[in-house]
Specification:
37% helix, six-stranded mixed sheet, Rossmann fold, 2 domains, Nitrilase/N-carbamoyl-D-aminoacid amidohydrolase, 16 helices, alpha/beta
Length: 546
């Protein structure tokens, strides 16, 4: 069987635009003389549509397009992800479905059985699970069609399974000859390797060919990397789709291929590619063409600026430097050097005068209270106002520059440096920021080495260094990774890292900063546990470690 895989980048809610893309690629596949062309999960409406699903008009528009797509078909099969409805006495009556059309009609629908309800997934809120799975005979083959999670429960791969049923195993037991999976699987580092390992185990054991098509593109905070995969009967990876861009390729289940061995690139390459796509798609899909960044001369804003240039082009990125009386001469100099290396425009707008005016206004109110974090936050909020004013006036997308380490412990100012539409490196630890910066400079200096080598500082008071308030980042990030991503508690962390008092203080700071993160910009997700929708903890709570 010749199967075309169409790895597309849909826009959530753009039902007409997405369906137009499906039709154009389908007609291309017809000319390529394939048997079937397949598109990703919920390709018609985009994934995840969230509460749009609860709108009747939205579902009706999807249903209308389903029929329209079916009428476009010839004898070549068209398989795509969509929403269908079938109401019974109990349940939502709404399904996440794979729809197969040919000869001008909807011929077969397989609803998703395993509805993920963890991390960033909340499909139980919207969909009803399939009660059963069925094969469909097409061109002499018994097609086992599944939707994303349905293939992620193989008992030969997972030590612990989330679900009682294994729909793909049931289909194989019923006589499947070809496996097809349509997916929308968000990327996190090493996730593509995990997909390969799991799918290879499945196909090797059952000696069946598999075509797995995954969506590509960024949908707010979620980044889908593509990397669609085709396996032969030996469990060998025959074809691997492009990553971080749309792709179209043909898999012949009977042909011989050289096995693909390289699955995932280095951490640095993958993360930079992910974040670049995240910024590019956020801007494109929300209607922005240009971005504005507060460039401080520090490493975080330098990295975000580099990513913005990669995503949008140098001609579409503008930065503002906003020195105060506490800013070092080197910070402005380093920021200018970076801007000139990247070929971007910049303004220098000092905040001294406005800051002094604030202090004068508050002097009779603050009375004799000594300076503290209040005055530091005032500076950050003045800068936030400058950036938001520029964003409003020129319709620029404001990108925030805080990293995951700072977000974790609340080392950021609400309505100040946290202002912006998307947190570009909010899922990248500070130690990883340095790693990425050094990778960017692997062949030539792009981010000035002065920025990479200087001690990190918010420069909000004389001689300030981050380590005045925080543990060294190499130690802090180990605590954060264990607590945030591995869900370890104080005893396990102390057993591994020592320094109980410091660990205890960090964990309390993380918990006490939840109110800030709830008000933060969406974070581009590149790890398996990012701040945002996939990590939900209460702000008001009394759970504390002993």
């Amino acid at each position: 069987m010749k199967i075309a895989l169409a790895q597309i980048n849909p826009i959530i809610g753009d039902i007409e635009g997405n369906s137009k893309k499906i039709i154009e690629i389908y007609h291309k596949a017809e000319k390529d003389d394939v048997d079937l062309v397949m598109f990703p999960e919920l390709a018609v409406c985009g994934y995840p549509p969230l509460d749009l699903i609860e709108k009747y008009e939205f579902r009706k528009a999807v249903a209308d397009v389903n029929k329209k797509l079916s009428r476009e078909t010839s004898s070549v099969g068209l398989l795509f992800g969509t929403i269908t409805e079938r109401y019974e006495s109990v349940g939502t009556g709404i399904y996440n479905s794979a729809m197969l059309c040919y000869d001008g009609r909807i011929q077969f629908i397989q609803n998703k059985m395993l509805l993920p309800n963890y991390d960033v997934f909340d499909e139980v809120r919207y969909f009803e699970p399939a009660k059963d799975v069925f094969l469909h005979e097409f061109r002499g083959e018994q097609l086992a069609i599944s939707v994303c999670e349905d293939i992620w429960n193989d008992d030969d791969y997972w030590k612990h399974r989330r679900y009682h049923r294994d729909p793909v195993r049931e289909l194989i037991g019923n006589g499947a000859t070809v496996l097809l999976n349509i997916s929308a699987s968000p990327y996190a580092h090493n996730r593509r390797q995990e997909r390969y390992d799991m799918l290879s185990t499945l196909t090797r054991k059952d000696r069946l060919p598999l075509a797995y098509v995954c969506t590509v593109g960024a949908q707010t905070d979620l980044i889908f990397d593509g990397g669609s995969m085709c396996f032969d009967r030996r469990g060998e990876l025959c074809l691997l789709g492009k990553t971080y861009e749309e792709d179209y390729f043909i898999f012949d289940t009977e042909a011989k291929y050289e096995p693909v061995r390289s699955i995932e690139k280095s951490f640095e390459q993958e993360v930079i590619s992910s974040l670049t796509l995240g910024v590019k798609d956020y801007a494109r899909k929300t209607g922005f063409t240009k971005a504005i960044i507060g460039l401080s001369g520090g490493i975080d804003s330098a990295l975000v600026t580099y990513i913005a240039v990669e995503a949008l082009g140098a001609e579409n990125v503008h930065v503002i430097m906003m020195p105060s009386q506490y800013s070092s001469e080197g910070s402005v100099k380093d920021a200018v050097k970076l801007a000139e290396k990247l070929g971007i425009t910049y303004d220098i707008l000092p905040i001294n005068e406005v800051f002094e005016k604030y202090l004068d206004v508050f002097k009779p109110v603050f009375k004799d209270k000594p300076p503290d974090v209040t005055e530091e936050n005032l500076q950050a909020r003045i800068r936030g106002n400058y950036l938001m004013a520029y964003s409003n006036k020129f319709s620029y997308l404001l990108l925030t520059t805080g990293n995951k380490s700072e977000m974790a412990v609340g080392y950021a100012t609400l309505y100040g440096d946290m202002s912006g539409a998307i947190a570009v490196i909010g899922d990248v630890y500070k130690t990883q920021v340095y790693k990425l910066a050094r990778y960017i400079n692997r062949e030539e200096e792009i981010i000035p080495w002065e920025i990479i080598h200087k001690a990190p500082s918010a420069e909000l008071r004389p001689g300030q260094k981050d380590e005045d308030s925080l543990p060294p980042y190499d130690f802090l990030d180990q605590i954060l990774e264990m607590y945030l991503e591995e869900y370890k508690e104080i005893e396990e962390i102390v057993d591994r890292l020592g320094n109980r008092e410091m660990v205890k203080k960090v964990l309390e700071t993380i918990d006490n900063s939840e109110f800030k993160r709830k008000q933060a910009a969406p974070v581009l997700r590149v790890s398996k546990k990012a701040f945002g929708y996939g990590r939900r903890f209460p702000i008001v709570q009394k759970w504390r470690r002993p």
